[in-house]
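Propose amino acids for all 153 sites.
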């Protein structure tokens, strides 16, 4: 969902910032929930939060090809692996705190991530170009392959 939205909007940074902010709001609302809240409202907040969490996951993998297309698979694998490491870290934290504290910690992590994305995440030039930008490394690899092909012929 998030990858498709960021492709359609043409601005992956803005989409990521919106999703991260929505996650922070959603987890803050979940932390404020208690037994006096109506069940339908709790379900609505959970769906709202889930929409933003899943959208940000897609937006993350939508950003990955913009980093360096030649090694997209490697970067995607590392992003998935670090996501699993983050899950283990948060589940470990969950064993030491109450559910309310845990949702506040998740919200703080989302808002911290929002700040990091706001400051350091830059939309790459020609990120939505039809043609692949060939870097100097790509040119060097292509030249080496041509030399190997000529040597075999």
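Proposal:
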């Amino acid at each position: 969902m998030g990858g498709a939205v960021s492709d359609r909007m043409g601005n992956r940074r803005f989409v990521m910032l919106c999703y991260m902010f929505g996650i922070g709001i959603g987890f803050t609302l979940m932390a404020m929930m208690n037994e006096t809240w109506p069940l339908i409202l709790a379900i609505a907040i959970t769906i709202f939060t889930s929409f933003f969490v899943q959208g940000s996951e897609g937006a993350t993998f939508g950003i990955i090809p913009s980093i360096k297309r030649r090694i997209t698979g490697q970067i995607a694998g590392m992003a998935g692996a670090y996501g699993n490491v983050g899950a283990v870290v948060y589940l470990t934290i969950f064993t030491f705190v109450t559910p309310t504290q845990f949702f506040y910690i998740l919200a703080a992590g989302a808002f911290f991530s929002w700040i990091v994305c706001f400051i350091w995440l830059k939309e790459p030039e020609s990120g939505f170009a039809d043609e692949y930008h060939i870097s100097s490394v790509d040119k060097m690899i292509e030249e080496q392959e041509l030399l190997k092909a000529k040597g075999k012929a």
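The chain has a mean pLDDT of 83. The CA atoms of residues 70 and 134 lie 9 Å apart.
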